[in-house]
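Take a look at the protein record below and flag anything odd:
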Amino acid sequence: LLIRIFNLFIGIDEHKMDKGIIFCRTKLDCDNCETFLKKRGHSCICLHGDRNPNERADNLKKFKVSLVGGS
């Protein structure tokens, strides 16, 4: 997973991306990716079935109105 995330950082930098969606194989991978990205200063939200429905709805709304991602 860490190699994939490292490659993700390369892609973000090369293409100057400020917003994107990352799909993970498992819920645990999703949680780990979120933690890894946040520790490195990126804004990030996680959406999966183990999250509280209100949290998922709020996170999706934040993404839609650009409260997550970008500078």
Q: What stands out?
A: The radius of gyration is 12 Å. The longest helix spans residues 2-15.
